Amino acid sequence: MSTMMKACVAGGNRPIRLEDCPSPVPGTDQLLIRTRAVALNNADLTPRDEDHIAGYEFSGEVVAVGSGVDPAIIGERVAGTAPSAFAEFVLVHHRHVIVIPRELSFEEAAPLPTALLTEFGALSLAGTGPGDSVLITAASSGIGLIGVQIAKLMGAMPVIATTRSASKRAMLEGLGADVVIVTNCAGPGGAGWAAQVLEATDGLGVTTVLDHVAGEMLNATVPATRRGGQIISVGRLSGAVAPVNLYGLAVRQTSLRSVSYGFNPSEVIGDLLAGVSEQILPAVADGRVRAVVDAVFPFTRMPAAVERLSSGQAKGKIVLSLPWPGRYWQALPWCSGAA
């Protein structure tokens, strides 16, 4: 293996660019992955000052292992989450991957790990099962789409999805949403759509909210929640701060939790992905749970892929493919407006 690799570097107040970087070497508890596909997430759009290899989500083949890892996994097709994923090779903790079902391509698997562990983790924390009703905000986001499917798989009824775009209604219904609410048609600050949730739940409200937005949206979910229900803050598309009517929570005896599944300690993601492998991957293999892919770009068109994600028009995840064997590019003078 070459000592150098191509990687997408961001930061330093410059556009994302393709550069030569040292190839990584696996350390204790690590796998080295030859990357076959990567997926974009909203976190990839967050500016950072320091130069860094971008990306968090990938699929590929295990080509080497560090100490403490059974070498029998070499050659396995896996998908996972790790920093610095947008590169020809990526290092990942051995528990931060899932084995790709043989029915899936690398491009179909790359957008799964982050959404699966996040939505499975949140819904498991809520104890979701038959008899529960679930409201998922920003359900047409790449992560929210997986949340709709996992909630249905766990037996929730109804699963209620919100979206700002009426054009995404059919997609959400096709994935199992029982009710789809277009929030930008429901009045200022979401006023009116909570009434639609109550109507769909015989006036009771949902037992669980998975909120991916925060901001005013999180507060708007309070009157849509059943007495004794719970709100799980999973995402912060509107920022990390949200005004909350504490009296409203108290009156409805509603609990509010906020979760974030980072890379440290490693046991957090490891335990979640172990649960995903046992409880969710069979449904991924047979098609009951799947990533919705808006578009697949070649790795050399990363700026165009970022532009597509930034547009807010994508219906599902943006994936980039890295064909092997052999190098197929030269260093490119990428800029943010590249096509």
TrEMBL record:
Presence of keyword Iron: no
Example of a GO MF term: oxidoreductase activity, acting on NAD(P)H
A family per Pfam: ADH_N
Species whose genome carries this gene: Arthrobacter alpinus
Family annotation (SMART domains): PKS_ER (SM00829)
InterPro entries, per database record: ADH-like_C (IPR013149), ADH-like_N (IPR013154), ER (IPR020843), GroES-like_sf (IPR011032), NAD(P)-bd_dom_sf (IPR036291)
SUPFAM superfamilies xref list: GroES-like, NAD(P)-binding Rossmann-fold domains
The protein's name: NADPH:quinone reductase
